[in-house]
Amino acid sequence: MRGWRRLGGRIGLVCIVFASGYLGAHLRMASAPIVEASHQFSDVPDSVFYHDFVDFMVDNGITSGCSDSPPLYCGDQPVTRGQVAVFLERTANLVLPRLIDRPFHAFVICPGGALRWAVVSSAGGFVRGSAGTGASRLGNGTYVVTFDINVSACSWQVTVGQTGSVGTTTGMANVAGRSGNANGLFITTSDVQS
Fold it and tell me: What is the mean pLDDT of the chain?
């Protein structure tokens, strides 16, 4: 019985602390004067919990607020699905490395020891490699390399840079099988993610 009383007392104490903190925060918000903001939005005072997050979003080009004159963030306004799409796109551009043209090597090792390879320029041109191999650029940092054999059951590796090139080429590369073409590989090259 004593254990239940202790548990009930603890639960009651937690409820009192939560309620007093909740009510205290609301009373302070109702009676406290608005504090000046340390950035361009006058409706995001330094005291509001999301102040630093708004600064991050502005500094990284994710948002520019809802009004230019006067500069406002409108933190209490609803957000449309269109605005969410813009926020997500801008956040992805910040977080993910952007696709950019880079020269690369593609290596394929198949069961039974078959080996294929290709050196591809940043423009998508086939520089050298195995007989029957071709390459082309599909878009920014996006390429297809086609071999003379089915490579869907093989191991693939791609490295950024060309042998014998002057200077250093940095970046990342990814490789995947080419949908609808068992002889092809889909390759993307991008900036080094910071």
Answer: 78
Q: What is the mean pLDDT of residues 167-171?
A: 70
Cα(84)–Cα(60) distance, rounded to whole angstroms?
Answer: 16
68 sits in the region (left: phi over 0; alpha: psi -120 to 50; else beta) called alpha
- What was the pLDDT predicted at 164? 61
Maximal C-alpha separation, the chain: 84
What's the whole-model pTM score? 0.54
Q: What is the mean pLDDT of residues 31-50?
A: 70
3-state class percentages of the chain: helix first, strand second, coil last, to nearest 5? 30, 30, 45
* Buried-state track 114-129, b at ≥16 Cβ within 10 A, e below 16: eebbbbbbbebeeeeb
Per-residue DSSP letter, 22: H
Domain boundaries in the chain? 1-32, 34-94, 104-190
